[in-house]
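Narrative summary of target 7.
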Amino acid sequence: MASISSISRTLFNDRRFSIRNPNSFNSWVLRKNLSVPRKMTFKTATVVVSATTAEMPKKRYPGEAKGFVEEMRFVAMKLHTKDQAKEGEKEPQGKPLAKWEPSIDGYLRFLVDSKLVYDTLEAIVQKAAFLSYAEFKNTGLERSEKLAKDLEWFKEQGHSIPEPSSPGIEYARYLEELSEKDPQAFLCHFYNIYFAHSAGGRMIGKKVAERILNNKELEFYKWDGDLSQLLQNVREKLNRVAESWTREEKNHCLEETEKSFKHSGEILRLILS
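Modeled conformation, tokenized:
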């Protein structure tokens, strides 16, 4: 059964159908056994052709051709500074990483607040208030258990482990509230937290270890298995989940990126406190 658009293309390309011979259209339809509206005539078919050719091309979003995760990556990279990424558009604030002067106390505050956020993320995924969250159980990217081991190591070295502070508490609360009502926004945070830690987070961990931990690599920066494959598995799952979203829902997810950077940045700055 042919569609209206295929009929329209045929009419454009076949000189047998002219305004002077409208019956030629009707006889052609009968020969081809096509299904068209009962009242459709040569004149109305011509209108369909005109309307079809006048349609505006669909807007393409940066990265859309590769999947929605690429769209998220594109938006996230623009929120970096130029010295952090070539796509970065933000002006640098504070000292560059190479000039950081971290302290053990500040680093512990960062690790404790980070653990609270990861505890929250993992609990939300396990609870799965929305069915899509269940896709992200046991991805291999989970960090809570690793952070627990690191904090225990610091304790064994004689350091006092602080209680979570405002940045971590506020972010964890925000994620809990968001997860109950806004899955697109929540998954934006999920993506940015885990993927940022696997990239820039590792670089920061290495620099801090050089300065104050005698190059000790914490469990926080280790993964069981091939990290690149773990990340790819999550990319594919995120892309599949986003296939069911409308364009408006996708845009809403992308718009949440800046809030994710804001909260994560506040926790990161604890290293220098």
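The chain has a mean pLDDT of 84.
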